Amino acid sequence: MKSRLWLKLACSLLITVSALSAAGQMSPGPAGTNQNTFAPLEQWKDAVIAGNTAVLKALYSTNPPTQVKTQAADTGADADVAFWSGLQARRLKVEVVQSNSPQSGLQQVVFQAEIRTVAPGSRTLYVSAAQIWQQQGDQWRMVFVQRTDPTKLQQPVSTSKDIYGSSIDAHTEIKQALSQATKAHKRVLVVFGANWCYDCHVLDLAFERPDISAVLKRNYEVVHVDVGQGDKNQDLMNEYDVPMKRGVPAAAVLDSNGKLLVSQKNAEFEKARSLGPEDLLQFLNKWKPQAR
Hints:
By secondary structure, the chain is of the alpha+beta class. The protein has 2 domains: 2-147, Nuclear Transport Factor 2, Chain: A (Roll); 170-287, 3-Layer(aba) Sandwich (Glutaredoxin). It is 35% helix and 26% strand. It contains 9 helices and 10 strands. Helix 7 runs parallel beside helix 9 (277-287). The protein starts with a helix and ends in a 5-residue tail after the last helix. The model is unreliable at 13-35 (pLDDT under 50).
């Protein structure tokens, strides 16, 4: 009976974690949900940081064997242990976005992990994952796992932010930005997108990173232009030579006089989730104003 229930939950979590990684429909759990005190998850986290494969493997079920689903293939516990150990995490921060117990002895958890790898070549990676844990005697073990591939940019756990205001007059916004850019010796970065677009939220979240935010604030006035369902502000996309058919988000850079300096014609930002901070910084530094 319980095995049938967790299989049903697994089907539900397949949708949940796919939404987190591809559609951005996840949001933090309701107020009062005790999301961060599930002890087995903390044990798993500590084992990943320690690189202790023996302890880590003991947290996976053998009867029934743990089912692991990734973007590439269906695997098992050994492959999942190898994946997390191979990341060589020096620090692991877990943001739980869903945690609940649908029945005594079962716990389902959805989270995004921020991993700082060991030096040399230390880097920060992000992985979204879902786990179903089952109590087997006095031990909790994972019976189902789904996870994404690592990304270099943090992936948003919600797309509720109103980045592209539907009531905003984009033409007026650009004029105001050009006025400010003239006074501050900046350029104008026009970003075309929509609130339904997951990668638009990835890009917006990346703009909040300290390293990228510093370059933006010093060198650019940023204007977000709503494209609706691909039928809004198309005159601006045409004017700035940004083809809607190549997808959003897409950007154009103007000098303070409104002259178009560059436009993205080849979907450079359209798959923002697969970019790294170095890709954004390269673009922003290339087109920022020259020092006086």
